[in-house]
Amino acid sequence: MPATAAPAVFLGVRHHSPACARLVADTIRTLRPACVLVEGPADMNDRMDELLLGHTLPVAVFSHYRDDQRTATSWTPLCDYSPEWIALREGRAAGAEVRFIDLPAWHPDVAGHTDRYANRYADAEARYAEATRRLCEHFAVDSVDALWDGLFEVTEPGTDPRELRARLDAYFELVRGDAEAHAGDRAREEYMASWVRAAEARAGDRPVLVVTGGFHQPALRALSARQRSAAAPADWPAVPQPPDGALGGSFLVPYSFRQLDAFAGYQSGMPSPGYYQRLWETGPPAAGQGLLRAVTERLRARGIPLSTADLIAARSLSQGLAHLRGHPYETRVDVLDGLAGALITDDLDRPLPWTTRGTLGAGTHPVVVEMVAACTGEAVGRLHPDTPLPPLVHDVTAHLAHLGLADAAAPVTLDLTKERGLSRSRALHRLRVLGVPGFTRVSGPAHGADPVFTEVWEPHPAAAGREAALIEAGAYGARLDEAAAALLGERTRAAGPDLGALAGLLFDAVLCGTGPLCADLLTALADRVGQAGDLGPLGEVLSAALGLWRHDRVFGVARDGLLGGVVGSAADRVFWLAEGLHGGPGADPAVLGALAAARDALRHAPALLSVTPEAAVEAAARISRDPRAPAALRGAAFGLRWALGVPDDPGPVVQVLATAAVDTLGDWLTGLFAVAREEVAHGTTTEGDSLIDIVDEVVSTLPESGFLVGLPALRQAFAFFPPRERERIAERLLHRRRLRGSARSLLRTPADPLLLARARALEENVTRLLDRHGLAAAPVPAPRPEVAG
């Protein structure tokens, strides 16, 4: 590096800060640098012309990476007032060489310590919150956003940019402090410093401007000072490439203010992008007034009353708070606090959202919700028509046009038994799995055994985010079928031992028609069901696989050998787990569903199981007599024997359970009906009696208190019967009592039967109490007949 080379100028910024964006623009105009280096993915440098096309902001650089071990995605969002965007735009306009200098998003040092939905500009605020907490305490503000506004965004008129820069330097030095950075951050900073050295060598005696997140600025300045004496490279640093066998790349995608807002989950930068867009365009005084107007319009549009007096009060409060807090103009928080004070009169059970960070929770006051929405704004970015798009976008466009779905405006009904209907269904399911909006399935088969052969889809031609979702889905493949299969494969690996998730993925794969993937899923299921330890998810897998194995003529997997292996392994495991299951009161529907699925497997696919029907009957007998097993499981085992043609006499069991605890009887009946409802409804016991008669006889002898205790469990049990069968049961009960009336009316009481029973018990208790204390009302004498005079 020549001895006359000027050291680089480092500008630390807060992402999406209008004040920082203005400082960057002013610095470039004043400095006229030879190079402008910006924190961002270096693999986009060859496509800088594409990035600087005339897009409607906000947009984002979407980066993706996928190999056999991991998947990483990242977004680098840019809006009109992002300092990084201003650095790129103004640097190019000033004739400087403009470069991104950070590692690509797929690199483990960027993606390895973040979740799948991270964004590049998620700096270390959370890890270094102690410094900002102390600053907030010192300046008596509730949040770092309010602190930032008071220090930087809403400043005295005519503030010298040099003063603002000095203040920013001090702030970021304090925030970074002596804390040890994450290993990934250290690697990123070493890489960015190598770009600074190369730029200084290329620039000669002209300045170099480095614009990065403020957290990195102190480290980059120190690294550059230590490395400046070493020989600088003649060329730009090499950009790391994905390893062999991996897929990675970057595309521009439209973004929106909602995605950019911290209240919607964005991880860094400034909240309330709609407000800061106004601040960028019109300055602080007009931004505050514009926010007040936006909130007013939203509230009135939603029918929330807002008078002129309310607005005057809100404006007065905002101005008073600004003066009290020492702000030359009203900040965002001043306006919001003034509105909240004037418009919200009831108590709030949580802090106002702008005093903290994070998404809005359920139950947030409706006025607060609209205030936050007004701050967010509704801007949606749009890519320039010349922007290159991933191959998947073109494939989907052509595919939908070929299937007659591109211009669908009315609901689309598909016949799954016909080839064209099935092809259209598969295309729409692939888009659904990939998360691409545009169509919503209104109806169709819910599982493999569902005897439904038509689907109805509702189109949404102008669905928001469709283009961005398609571009992001392009990370999974160039063709629609390939992308859907890759995403389902990723979810299969991520599901791990979660059998319930795998069962849902299996049906999704069948609906998408991804044949080879089904084999991978079935192999994974067959491996995992043998080690399953939870009956509920195991039952879901068994039910899904058995339904497809038995009935699926439409999707083409009926009698599949791999499916049969899953069915056999899952059913065998159900019996093994059920015999060891112990527990207390209550009925677990998922466990009962597993026993019902095992019953169906024994009935319809006995050759797939190593457990014979005879062995299953014996196992059910052991479970039904095990006092440590839950009552509902004992009832289900009793019903399984009945369903397999070996019924026992339920009378003694019912009598014992009713004597011990009537709610236990209800749980036992719930299990019995879950597995043997048809046998109970249409059959008789070994003694020739109906189980309904036996239960009625036992329940009729219960005391009132016992009946009330057992009523909820009994109602749950009889809920397994469909309305027509419940009506038949009611008719039988009327016949037993030699009563005449409408059985249907018994099922349509004007109120909850449990509530009626409790009300009756309460009335009787009150009557007894009044009688005990001699306070019962005297009977009203009958009116005497009047005698004509």
How would you describe what is shown here?
- It is a single chain.
- By secondary structure, the protein is an alpha/beta fold.
- It is built from 33 helices and eleven strands.
- The strands form three sheets. The protein has a four-stranded parallel sheet with strand order 1-7-2-5, sandwiched between helices. A four-stranded mixed sheet has the order 6-4-3-8, with helices on one face.
- Strand 3 (59-66) and strand 4 (71-78) form a beta hairpin.
- Helix 11 (273-282) packs across helix 12, helix 13 crosses helix 14 and helix 23 packs across helix 24.
- The longest helix has 21 residues, at 183-203.
